[in-house]
What does this fold into?
Amino acid sequence: MSRRKKKFACGHSGYGRECHRCEQSYAVREQKKKEKNAWQETFCHDPIDLSSLPRNVVLKARQIIQNIQNHTSYTNFRGKRLRHDRFIISIPVTRNYRLICRDYGSFVAPEAVVSHEDYNVCKPGS
Ligand SMILES: [Zn+2]
It folds into this structure.
């Protein structure tokens, strides 16, 4: 049985009825699209908006948020109260991002993740 290479309409050559190279890249594209959508959907479950942040920051922030919601102390994450507002807690997420939380007395709620630059801007007197 001889299988002869043929040239497809797309310009690739190969065996079979359809061009496998194009089929494959189509599948890869579809897979990437799916992954991207799935990633976008995960943001619906966050108590605060994390969608504009880099992926590693999102994942780390979620971990901290989850722990805080389970009443793990912010001090476990090297969180500190701000000097000018003791009800605000700043927790480092990565080198460049911090999670800002508010202390409501009986619980601590996440408010936002800010970059280092934003954080310094909203800090009075610096
Ligand atoms: Zn092709």
The mean pLDDT is 91.
